[in-house]
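Input sequence (167 aa), recorded before submission:
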Amino acid sequence: MKKYLFLVLMSLLIISCSKTSDKEYLDQAKKLLDEKKTTEAVTSLETLVNEYPESEIAPQALVQLAQIYQNQLDKNIKPTESFEKAEKYFMQVYEKYPDSEEAPKALFMSGFILANDLQNYDKATASYNLFIEKYPSHPLAVSAKEELDNMGLTPEEILKRTETVKK
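Predicted structure, C-alpha cell format:
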C-alpha cells in the first residue's frame, strides 16, 4: 500500500512539475504559425488564455488569436465567421484586460472589423464611441472619429467628400 501511495504521489509531482508555462504556449503557437499549423496554434493560444488568465501575456495571446481570424488563416471556416471570431477576441482583450497595453488597439480593431468587414454599423459605432471616450488622446482616436464620419460610405463617396471639403 505504501508503494502504491508513493507511486501515485510521485506521478502527481512529475505531472505538476511538467506543466507547460504560459510563455511556452505562446512560443509554441508562434512556431506552429510559422509552420502553417493554424489549428494547433489556435489550440496553444486558447490553452494559454484558459490556463493562465492572469498572465501578463494573456492579452497578447488574445490579440494573436484575433489576428489569425482577421487574416482568415483558418481555412476551415467561412470569412464571416472568421471576422466574427476576430472581433470577439479583440473585444475580450478590452473587456478582460482594460489596463493592458493591447486594450486600446484591440477596442479600435473591434470597431474596425464590425464596420468594415461585418457591416454592423450600430455595434461599430458603439465600439468607436467607447474608444473615443476611454482613450481620447490615443493616436488612434483621430482614426476612430474618421471611421465614424465615413462609416458605410464607399471609397468613391469618401474621396468625393474629401475633395468637396478641400474646395
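Checked by second reader. Residues 5-18 have pLDDT under 50 and may be disordered.
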